Amino acid sequence: MAFSKDFLWGGATAANQVEGGVLEAGRGLSNIDVLPFGPDRLAVQKGELKMLDWQEGYYYPAKEAIDMYHHYKEDIKLFAEMGFKVFRMSLSWSRIFPTGEEETANEAGLKFYDDIFDELKKYQIEPLVTIAHFDVPIHLVKKYGGWRNRKLVDLYLRYAQTVLTRYQGKVRYWITINEINVLVHQPFVGGGIVFEETDNRQEVIYQAAHHQLVASALVTKAAHEIDKNNRVGCMLAGGSHYPYTCRPEDYQEAIKRDREGYFFIDVQARGKYPNYALKKFEREKLTIVMAPQDEAILAASPVDFVTFSYYCSRTVSAHPEDSEQATGNIIPSIKNDYLKSSEWGWQIDPLGLRNSLNQLYDRYQKPLFIVENGVGAIDQPDETGFIDDEYRIEYLREHIKAMKAAIEIDGVELLGYTSWGCIDLIAASTGQMSKRYGYIYVDRDDLGNGSLKRSKKKSFYWYQRVIHSNGEKLDSKSLSIKETVRV
Fold first, then answer.
1. Do the Cβ atoms of 389 and 379 come closer than 8 Å?
2. Which of 98, 101, 177, 391 has the most CB atoms in a 10 Å sphere around its CB?
3. What is the reported pTM?
4. Which family is annotated (predicted)?
5. How big is the CA angle at 138 (ends 205 and 423), to the nearest 5 degrees?
6. Which domains does the chain have, with CATH numbers?
């Protein structure tokens, strides 16, 4: 068998994309709560349009999302029926510290996650918890400018120490910061950063990155001190870059673009800044303020494992004007004519997942964990309400085959796999519900209409079989289309 008997199969969500209940039980507003649906969303995500409160005339999808805040028992029961060994989720910072500056945590927020962990335990599902998943209390954005200010290191550490202590014994697997390299591409999403006219944007981004890297190391240290059984990971928005042609300058561009993401993980996994990053700061005259103790902090607490998301590979050129741009993803890419594309223009490349697994394992020699993978698609229920999502099954099947090859043939050490959006949720990039990833359909549209009723897609039963067989049964031909499959 390619997959070990304790391989962690499951699914992944984020608090801001599923919970809703935005102002319930003392929760405060977060940066992600004020991302509007519609044409202004991208400018807000990039920190180019200032929107720090809800404004009239806009719809904000995160306000209610899929209301897992009130449906979590029903949802976890469905995850258990599929056979999940692990559920990757995140905590809402502003549910626990509404402004981020309180002296004591919001007990109602802590209790909410206690209840979720207890429900998971009931079904023997291991939680994999992201402490910050595109999530900064809006008060900290208004008062300090988000992660550009070193004050957030201490505030984030206090938040993390609170949850590490509270959930000791309930949670073993932690991720400090979700897709940390997204900070480069969407600074408001990744760091609560809104640019001022006078800002040197690259300097602001990498100053914020330094603060996040120091904070991540401090939290890793705290996690190990609080409970020696804790295992802490970092997370990359992954996907290898291919050179568009065999021109040497295109290959060099691919190396450069890979390093934009690897930079963060190099620091978190190896404990120090890579030389190419220091040279970048020097060459571009970026002044990154570092405290005297920071070098020692980074060196003392590298992460235990490396997690990453993978949806597609990317293609780059030193002459991008010569080629058509692919669409949809926040990280730019040239269209690769050798690959098919999803309805949102994300290019489908299962072999790219195997390539990424090998590159990351070769680079860090630490256990890996795929914590996001999937394809966004429009699902059309038939006359009975059933969704035959064979396109989703095909995507996931081919990516699982690539994982198998990376383990069996290449010797990659892989801890687990949590496919993204195991239940339909609000898409982070577009705010759409119609861009669906889940095995479970949620009756809700892009403008918040619908009953929120949950129902099982064909892929639900397929993934149930995959987990039950520990990744050995990947076909879908024998699945009964409209009857529950007993595995």
1. yes
2. 177
3. 0.96
4. Belongs to the glycosyl hydrolase 1 family.
5. 90
6. 8-468 (3.20.20.80)
